[in-house]
Design goal:
Elements: E1 12-16, E2 25-31, E3 36-40, E4 51-54, E5 58-64, H1 66-75, H2 80-99
Antiparallel strand pairs: 1-2, 1-5, 2-3, 3-4
């Protein structure tokens, strides 16, 4: 893995590392610029009112939800149910992987 991190992508699952929601997972629903992204989870943070978050305060994970990404690219928005489904699908896969002893691989902070 190189020292330079990959750019944040719409539909990518992230782990929030700083702030009130630290330890929770969310989906990138928008990229403001190279420093800030918009996050939503479909329940507390909906697509209509996403959280603007500094990329240094999140951990990028190697999982991109194709359903969320395609929906945003095609229509410009995504349903909150689809966001919740993407996070649940990721959580189920993560729990299965951790039971097998395989840690999840993610990028560090973006600078």
């Amino acid at each position: 893995m190189s020292g330079k991190c990959s750019p944040c992508q719409i539909g990518q699952i992230v782990l929030i590392t700083h702030g009130r929601e630290a330890g929770q997972y969310a989906v990138i629903v928008g990229v403001v610029d190279e420093r800030f992204v918009l996050l939503a989870d479909g329940s507390r943070r909906t697509f209509d009112v996403p959280k603007r978050k500094n990329v240094q305060h999140i951990q990028l994970l190697d999982y991109i939800s194709s359903e969320v990404r395609n929906s945003i690219i095609e229509t410009g928005r995504v349903t909150n149910g689809k966001l919740r489904y993407a996070l649940t699908k990721f959580a189920n896969q993560y729990v299965t992987d951790s039971k097998k002893g395989e840690p999840i691989h993610g990028e560090g902070r973006c600078n």
